[in-house]
Design a protein that fits this description.
InterPro entries: Amidohydrolase (IPR017439), Bact_exopeptidase_dim_dom (IPR036264), Peptidase_M20 (IPR002933), Peptidase_M20_dimer (IPR011650). This protein is α/β, with parallel strands linked by helices. It is built from 9 helices and 16 strands.
Length: about 400
């Protein structure tokens, strides 16, 4: 067996304290999308310690290269980790709690970044055990449209290394997958996500005289329920679709009809044709209904990420590679997930696979979902996260005719 794979468990065990230290440093100093300057500098420092060459791209992104010494095809595997945090005030009381007020790693990107640095440390040590090239992609701004992935692709950096890009692999922690498991799904996996922002302007007035006002609250409420019919009555039942409002603000009072109400929401689906049709319908109804009831309306649709599709053949190869090295039962089959990810863009250009790393250990402190101010995770997940990426990468690069 490959010497790296034989020694992998011991290497990860030895590396574990350092990776936890890196993750906690990143957690303590989170930065928002397109603002990851200190995070980027920290990643660059860690790569320099490992003697891995790198290049800064898209302002805060970092792209590094490890070249194998074994004779073989000049294939490339790209390993991607996102680095940005969220505008959330952390409520965890841990010694590595965020020191940046109102900013938190509530989606595990600190884990993803530290995990990839762990993978880099292992692979750099064993360059004699594989052929081809490994590109380490530390990506900015997954959390904010238009996202960092599209900037990375437009920069052309991934095409600058020569050879054929055989795969782009990414991971995401999941408190819904058991600790010690890797979640995989071939084909469609995650949804597209588009945002819409609606401002309805009526004519404010006294609550006792609604007939003298144009009540934007009532109009907004009617619009909200009407738009739900886009999913319940226009979508094919076989097509996953979710329309959710997360904001409804009318700054009036108990006896005051406000002048204006603002709504904001998202639409998610797995089908690109239906996505376009649904967004057009949302915009049309949002314009016509308030206008018919005497209000003015401003409608803004922000197009987000496309649906994420895992290449079926690549998914099967990675599953085989993980199970051969880590044992049957490590991989858990997943259902579709209606969250969105700009990793999806890589799959439109290269064979790509996005997998989940389980963090569910039945401890109440780690049961909070992603984007929750109390989100935390079991750092033992590094053992499976690092191993899965190392095993997948070696399997893909050393596999003949694949």
């Amino acid at each position: 067996m490959n010497r790296l794979l034989t020694n992998l468990s011991a290497e990860i065990k030895q590396l574990f304290p350092k990776i936890v230290e890196i993750r906690r440093h990143l957690h303590r100093y989170p930065e928002l999308s397109f603002e990851e300057y200190k995070t980027s500098a920290y990643v660059q420092k860690q790569l320099a310690i490992l003697d891995i060459s790198y290049e800064v791209v898209a302002d805060t992104g970092v792209v590094a290269l490890i070249e194998g010494e074994r004779t073989g095809a000049d294939d490339i595997v790209v390993l991607r980790a996102d680095m940005d945090a969220l505008p959330i005030h952390e409520q965890n009381e841990v010694d590595y709690k965020s020191v940046n007020e109102g900013v938190m790693h509530a989606c595990g990107h600190d884990f993803h970044t530290a995990n990839l640095l762990g993978v880099a440390s292992v692979l750099k040590k064993y360059i004699a055990e594989f052929s081809g090239k490994i590109v380490l992609l530390f990506q900015p701004a997954e959390e904010k449209i238009p996202g960092g992935a599209i900037q990375i692709l437009e920069s052309g950096i991934l095409e600058s290394f020569g050879g054929k890009i055989k795969a782009v692999l990414g991971i995401h922690v999941s408190p819904r997958v058991p600790l010690g498991k890797i979640g995989l799904r071939e084909g469609r996996f995650m949804a597209s996500s588009d945002e819409f922002y609606l401002t309805i302007t009526g004519s404010g007035g006294h609550a006792a005289e609604p007939h003298r006002a144009v009540d934007p609250i009532m109009i907004a409420a009617q619009l909200l329920t009407t738009l739900q019919q886009v999913v319940s009555r226009k979508a094919n039942p076989d097509t996953p679709s979710v329309l959710t409002f997360g904001r409804f603000i009318g700054d009036g009072a108990a006896n005051v009809i406000p002048q204006q109400v603002s709504l904001a929401g998202t639409f998610r689906t797995m089908d690109e044709t239906w996505r376009k049709e649904a967004l057009e319908t949302v915009a049309e109804i949002s314009h016509t209904l308030p206008t018919a009831l005497g209000a003015a309306v401003d409608v803004e649709v922000r197009h987000g990420y496309p649906a994420l599709y895992n290449d079926p053949e690549l998914t099967r190869q990675v599953k085989n590679g993980i199970e051969q090295s880590m044992g049957d039962g490590v991989v858990q089959d997943l259902d579709i997930w209606m969250a969105a990810e700009d990793f999806a863009y890589y799959g439109y250009r290269y064979p790509a696979l996005f997998m989940l790393v389980g963090t569910d250990n039945n401890d109440s402190a780690t049961q909070y979902g992603l984007h929750n101010p109390q989100f935390n995770l079991d750092e033992k997940a590094f053992e499976i996260g690092i191993a899965a990426l190392v095993n997948s990468t070696i399997y893909l690069l050393n596999r003949p005719n694949g």
